[in-house]
Amino acid sequence: MADEEVEISRGNSAASLLQNTLLIEALDSIEQHFREAIENSALSRSDVREEAYHMLCASKVFRKHLTHHIETGKMASVAFAQREDQETRERDHREWDGSPDGRTGSGYPQSS
Fold this sequence. Notes:
This protein has one domain (3-96). The protein contains 3 helices and no strands. It has helices at residues 3-18, 21-40, 46-97. The radius of gyration is 27 Å and the shape is rod-shaped. Residues 77-112 are annotated as: Disordered.
């Protein structure tokens, strides 16, 4: 499988994950839990707030990582489609021209 195809596949997988309602609910719930821990911790419990903050950041990094794969997959998909289109146009041009390499010939049968 070509690199672009791998990136497209990974992007599709990441998109599926970020569209999975169970995963989204879990992440939202976890993030809400850490926000509440930050807001409701005692003033003397900076360690609790700091740990909750780091966990909240980790959740955001997780989402960004998946989003990065989605965007990379989209770009790979565009590049793949453009390359396929270019190859099709070149092949069609060679067939229309009538020469095997597309460089010479009028495309009309030669009379002997």
